Amino acid sequence: MRSLLVKIRRDLRRRPLRNSLTVLGVVFGVAGVVAISVATHAMVDAQRLTYAGSQQADLATFTSDISPTTRHLIERQPNVAAADTRAVTFTRFDAGSGWVNVRLVGIDSFEAMQLNVVTLVRGRWPERGEIAFDESARDLSALAIGDVVAIRDAPNEPIIYLTVVGFTRSPAQLGAGLLNRATAYTQATTVREMTGRTGDNFLLVRVVDQQRASQTAEDLSRLLSKRGAQAFGFNVRDPNDFVGSRELGTLLLLLRVFSWLGAALSAVLVANTIAAVMGEERNQIGILKSLGARRNQIIITYLAYATGIGFAGTLVGWVAGSIIGRWITTDLTNLTGLQQPPFRVSGREIMLALLVGTLVTVSATLVPALLYSRTRPASLLRSVGVRSEAGHPLVVRLTAPVARASTSVAIGVRNALRRPGRAGATIGVVAVAVAAFIGTQALSRSVSATVDDLYSLYGADGWISFQRPVNLSYARDLEQDPWILHAEAWTSATGAFGAVRTDIWGMPAGHPLYAYRLVSGAWIRPANPTAVVVSSNLANEIDARVGDVRELDIGKRRETVQIVGIVDDASTYLGSTTTGKVFMQTADLNRLIGLGNRADMFAFTLTTKEPAEIDQALSAIEERAREYGPVTYAAYSDQRSSSQAIGILTLMLNAMVIVVAIVGMAGIANALLISIAERRREFGILRAVGAGTRQVVTVLVSEGIMLATFGLVLGILAGYPLALLLVALTSRELFALSFHLSFQTIGLTFVVALLAVAAISTAPGIIASRIRPIQVLRYE
User: pTM of whole model > 0.85?
Assistant: First the structure.
């Protein structure tokens, strides 16, 4: 045992650079897997803590004015554990850099919050004339404690000024940067005065039995109706879900795939190192076998050496993975509004790190160890000497044109092909790294292009909504504005086909701004029963075909509708819990939700497409329509928010691909260092016959580029099906994506990879150029 420990210590000291690269590979392999595991389990804990710590509501709805007496009555209803009310309005604020959308929440007593409890992060709770913003609001506007912000409900309403006194964290709510809307809190009396209400208009309820939540919502709706109040559709919280969980789950799934890919590459890197070590010590292995050493003793000797590397890599990888996982958790909880769980050392991640580190090192060591332990002593003790090219006539013939141009380059190219097993492993590492890069770039581009394409379906440049509905004919009045080319009334609602909830849109039957793409059937038209068009993903979910007659639930009403068409529209919004869309005539939807011949939202196109001019146009339109309390929304701003969400996906995936790429680069460097160690005599001969530093570096760089070129070709061939798989996986989890992979991406990958390999190969080349011929040739 003592001799074994001495050998392990000697081996680790003899090859510091090569061992460091191998440990680095194990570190990245372990760290990637541990980081994703930490983040995944932390997000589960975050959801649990948010629900328990903030007393998250199970039911939520906007209502007409609710008095404290009504709230107390609701609390005494069966299956109701607690009830809370808020005064909520959607308005705008200006902190000096322009008007920004804000959800303003009024609370009577911040100390007495029962449900969806808001956490004070900095400052203090607002009193009359004061306001506290959710901390993510600083993504939209420069805010600081002490600032005075202007609040304007509509152009015709007076401006009120509030002083910022604190920053908060809103539970289970997406960040302002993703929503393109801030959240702020003030005294309830301030919101009521702004809206002209006498009571709160937002009801939160926590139930005792989650299984009966939907029935409780119906019971409360009837109760409110009897009390002269109205509930505008309860949102029932899914206990196994939170806002953005579907998108988050997809992201973590993709990261998990790449983390295990990095672990597999680490195993190849370790296998390369162990094979090289055993190749260098083949004479020692032969002597041991001649003296009677058994196969298992030889295997244990090199397994112990690999275990030392694995232990060091596992320890550092676990620490790095825990830190990275914590960083990912912090970012994701900030985006989703979940409560970040406290950091704790988990035995689960420790065991996972040990498992991955052990699998990487042991599995990678067994193959070369078994191979050399089964080799006959005579073969192991035979002196290899300086290898001749005569044994590779095909390689010599293929590289003859290169030799005529540059002898140094030809030597490097031929060296890359002399060890087919090791070259194959190195090429495989590069191929996997390149395939991963191409796959993620294709996925990122596919998501971006699909989102842009989906936005092009909705041809509106902006929308305008009103505090109170106006006549449908108001679209013609809007078209009198010099900024507006065309306007039309739209209506939106939420309904369900059985248990499948969906978004419903009311639009004109003839030539709407919505550029529908029919898959089958026709567009909406006047009909009895009511004609509807459904999106293809909804049709697949409910197994619907053109001509089917179905029951559509909208609020308390159930309408018999006929499906007359199916359109290709998989657009969704971050945090959506509905499936697909239903389109019907505006008049039909207005009848079902009780709007009659009125509308509270209009879509329009403008004479300009420039963001700055669009903002100017929207301000002018609001001023013209100020008597109705308008609020406008720019399509480009909403698309920008979607691009930010896509940017987060791209950033996370690219970070994981960088890890894979580093392992690949380490594989190239390790292979070249192994090549130097095995061919020290050959490099000594080159130096003895006059080869300078430039020629030696050229040999190693050429060898690295040759290996990288083969890896690039294979990686590109493998990257295309991997890209298809990633896009298909994301399409299944989120929404249908159109595949995009450009030749420019492939060409850029090729060029950048070759430059990176040339740079990484320079260091081994410099090491080889410093070999002293007298030291390496004295034993010949």
Answer: no
